[in-house]
Amino acid sequence: MAASLALALIALLSAAISATNITEILSGYPEYSEFNDLLTKTKLADEINSREPVTVCALPNGALSSVTSKHPLSVVKNVLALHVLLDYFDGPKLHKISEGSVLSTTLYQTTGNAAGQLGFVNITDVKGGKVAFGSGLPGSPLDSTFTKSVKQFPYNLSVIEISQAIAPAAVLSAAAPSDLNITALLEKAGCKTFASLIVSTGVVKVYASAAGKGLTVFAPNDEAFKAADAPDLTKLTNAEVVSLLQYHALAAYSPVGTLKQTKGRISTLATNGAGKYDLGVKTAGDSVSLVTGVDDSRIASTVIDSTPLCIFTVDSLLLPVELFGKAPSPAPGPAPETSPSPSPAEAPTPASSPEPASAPSPFKSPPAPPTNSPDGAPSEGPTADSKNSSSDNSGASFEAPPAVVKVLLTVAFLVFGCILTS
Ligand SMILES: *[C@@H]1O[C@H](CO)[C@@H](O)[C@H](O)[C@H]1NC(C)=O
Ligand SMILES: *[C@@H]1O[C@H](CO)[C@@H](O)[C@H](O)[C@H]1NC(C)=O
Ligand SMILES: *[C@@H]1O[C@H](CO)[C@@H](O)[C@H](O)[C@H]1NC(C)=O
Ligand SMILES: *[C@@H]1O[C@H](CO)[C@@H](O)[C@H](O)[C@H]1NC(C)=O
Ligand SMILES: *[C@@H]1O[C@H](CO)[C@@H](O)[C@H](O)[C@H]1NC(C)=O
């Protein structure tokens, strides 16, 4: 009795601490170890952990071998995403499906790649007390069956076992990411300026060589380059433009779910011995923003999410502290100019660059004043005009410091409390 109480307590505590971690839950069931490994490799685990309610339809070891042996990881991910239902189903609920049949939305539906009802799973209570699963595409076979409940956290997360994979042909036949043309994808997504910049600087080659192992791109859309507070790229040296463009990508596959779980700063392709060029991630509900230290940039849309490649659009340029702001710690060294990041190499090859159509103008222009203001940090004080400084050139765009917000909140809370108690 005491033991089971203690167990219940531990279960409660761990649920509270980790807000459920699918990897950890499944690790208690060796019969799903392959399924669990794939959730980690495809980063679906992060996606599952950041959502509720969710039902994970686990597959016993071996059930996915026909899929994993013949298809790239990007396709395996899509198949697995069909096994994550965005609703809560446990044994009793499955046996009480109204009208005997229901279509449930899956994580695959959220990728935007699912045509028609491909992103849905059909759950049907068939005769004889069995519950059958199949693709939501009309006419699909319902050849997988519910075998048992594995673990439930009502009504947020349920893990159940089904007998075999739901793998419709239309999902299996998707193109592998190696066939994708990054520039063309960017152009189509309304990021023509960014696309032409990465081509004319040669950075696209750096992207392409990273894309095999893992690449996430945050592409500012064309409006972002036209914004009033957009930086003047002609004031940057070539090396700085290259760093700026590399700053807009990570050498890792980081879909939204993974970004949401990110704690601390993450390195970018621009990160090197001469500069951190790192990013933080801020999440508010479904909205995800990248925090550079100079400003925040909201992720506006997903252009493609296909392991190991992920491309997002962002609605403003990511401005690294190294180029546009003052690092809080006084940089001891001299001008940052002198460090033309080691080897973006690959040489621009201006010859081959086609005339950059909508020309963001030649950033050939000479050095120009380093944006890192030379002499001793002015305006370190956040006060006064900090409100609307994002577009002014003093560069000191301090956002309302969290402490101030906190104080304001506290004051508001106190006032509210007084009203209540009076
Ligand atoms: C989930 O659990 C796994 C295995 O215990 C661990 O490696 C991972 O860091 C955890 N994830 C989170 C977000 O806590
Ligand atoms: C589920 O599939 C069965 C068999 O194809 C079909 O009769 C039923 O209408 C489907 N259910 C829903 C909700 O579409
Ligand atoms: C379920 O989610 C709600 C809302 O986020 C949370 O308050 C509750 O603690 C969760 N329950 C469990 C068992 O994780
Ligand atoms: C990729 O697309 C761009 C623009 O649409 C095109 O110029 C380029 O030739 C394509 N590259 C390949 C390898 O197909
Ligand atoms: C800040 O600047 C924007 C555009 O530059 C303007 O629309 C807005 O009214 C300004 N806000 C304040 C508080 O001055």
Automatic annotation (TrEMBL):
Protein role: May be a cell surface adhesion protein.
Membrane topology of this protein: Lipid-anchor; GPI-anchor
Signal peptide: 1-19
Domain FAS1, residue spans: 19-85, 178-318
Region (Disordered): 329-398
UniProt record similarity statement: Belongs to the fasciclin-like AGP family.
Protein's name in the database: FAS1 domain-containing protein
Annotated GO CC locations: plasma membrane; side of membrane
Comp. bias intervals (Pro residues): 329-372
Compartments, as annotated in UniProt: Cell membrane
Keyword vocabulary terms for this entry: Cell membrane, Glycoprotein, GPI-anchor, Lipoprotein, Membrane, Proteoglycan, Repeat, Signal
Record organism: Salvia splendens
SMART domains: FAS1
Biased composition (Low complexity): 373-397
